[in-house]
Design a protein that fits this description.
The protein has 282 residues and is an alpha+beta fold. The chain has five helices and ten strands, in the order ααααββββββββββα.
Length: 282
């Protein structure tokens, strides 16, 4: 019976490793982009995936190692427990409590691993979060402002000049600005930036296929940049429980070639400036 419980407690870790190994083939993994290759749809997202896999390898090796050690201890204890009570004294147990060498080893080794992870990810974190490290293409300013509110995404675009080109997006709303709800359109093939706001409570701007996630905090204007290589539709979700209607905060990101995006802005401008009165033929 002792060996049964040893096998029982070893069965679940082995099962967990096998299921995790097979999970990508069952689509139980990261959301896939339009390419269907299981990778993030943005260059920065792929670097974030690489960090995740590096941490996954470290934790998997640690997990398997500790489970092997646990299995050894369980089976050794069960074997010793099978000896009859009147048997001669056999092999003594290894008493490790209070071992300074072991205490130092399992304090320094995890600390070294955590320090390595912290230093290894600093450039990715800086590129993602530090404004001065953003790509030069987005330094000119945001292309849109996304305001989270209960329970929708309200998007503000700059108006157009007389030649039909987008004006700079100002910090405060302008009479010429254009608006959509739950429908974010941006150019593909280059880095783009948005300003993220919240009109009420804390929300979270989440593009799972791009691995972009940023909290929208009341009172703050937070720049967020990303890049999509392909023109496609992506899910835009709220990843912060923000109230009873949280489930309704599903929108979309549409990326398209820049000329098509400019054409879409012109169509939006024509739609929102239309007074509904048909022009009179001369």
């Amino acid at each position: 019976m002792k060996r049964f419980w040893c096998l029982f407690f070893m069965f679940w870790p082995i099962t967990a490793v096998i299921v995790c190994w097979l999970a990508p083939g069952w689509n139980w993994w990261f959301p896939q982009g339009p390419a269907g290759d299981g990778l993030a749809s943005s260059p920065l997202g792929r670097r974030i995936d690489d960090l995740f896999y590096m941490i996954l390898v470290i934790t998997s090796i640690t997990f398997v190692g500790t489970q092997v050690a646990l299995g050894y201890v369980l089976f050794t204890g069960a074997r010793r427990g099978d000896q009859p009570a009147d048997a001669e004294e056999g092999e003594k147990a290894w008493y490790t409590h209070g071992s300074h060498n072991l205490e130092v080893m399992w304090s320094i080794v995890p600390a070294g691993i955590l320090l390595f992870i912290a230093l290894y990810q600093m450039d990715v974190w800086a590129e993602y979060r530090v404004r001065n490290e953003f790509p030069k293409q987005v330094q000119s300013g945001p292309l849109a402002e996304v305001t989270a509110r209960q329970f929708e995404w309200r998007i503000r675009y700059p108006g157009l000049d007389e030649e039909g080109n987008p004006l700079p997006l100002m910090a405060e709303p302008q009479p010429t600005d254009l608006y959509t709800v739950n429908d974010l359109h941006l150019p593909s093939g280059k880095p783009v930036m948005i300003n993220l706001r919240s009109a009420d409570v804390q929300h979270s701007f989440f593009l799972p296929e791009l691995r972009v996630k940023q909290d929208a905090v009341p009172g703050l204007v937070i720049p967020v940049w990303f890049e999509t290589k392909k023109s496609a539709n992506y899910a835009l979700l709220c990843a912060e429980l923000c109230g009873w209607g949280h489930y309704k905060m599903k929108a979309r990101l549409v990326t398209q070639p820049e000329e098509e995006w400019r054409g879409w802005l012109r169509d939006l401008h024509a739609e929102q400036t239309d007074d509904g009165v048909p022009e009179q033929a001369e």
